[in-house]
Amino acid sequence: MGGRWENDDTHADAGGDAGGDAALLRAVAAGDASALAELYDRHAGWLHARLARRCTDPEVVREVLQDTFVTVWRSAAGHRGQQTGGWLWTIAARRLVDARRVQERAARVETLPAPAAVAPSAEDRVLTALEYGDVGTALDRISPELREVLRATVVDGLSTREAARLLGIPEGTVKSRALRARAELRAALTQLNPSPAGGPA
Fold this sequence. Notes:
Layout: H1 2-8, H2 18-29, H3 33-54, H4 58-75, H5 84-111, H6 122-127, H7 135-140, H8 144-155, H9 160-167, H10 171-192, H11 194-197
Helix pairs in contact: 2-3, 3-4, 4-5, 8-9, 8-10, 9-10
């Protein structure tokens, strides 16, 4: 990477003052933000130009450049005397590769087919008010402790663990009560709406 950097970049200041850069990096490692700003002033120009030759998206170039110096701030202590310009470019090149991977993943996600919709059960349709409006009546017909679990897990959308914390009961109790609650609710819905709710859930 170092030799390629030497041959590929025509900026006279790309390497910077080696001694000055080393001192700046030591200061950055010690938490000196002004040293980072000076290092940025020395090297951001040629880094930006070189990144722009490899990426035509100016927003990506800007983000990669920013990420590069964030990485420098966090890892300056790991600099082991390498040529500063080459070390900075190694970081920038890796950040650019990372950015491209993110873009590629996003592009692949955009081309994926939408997941097939899962038909809700009869009681879920009632509880989410998608089909029926008589939710309160159906819920009032099941046991209070079962009603609490059903409201927490279905109406409020909580996970089993979250519902257990909210209600102060074990997760296993939440699961068993949820099963019983659905059975009781299904029976209540059958009485309230014999035709639409009486079919399979």
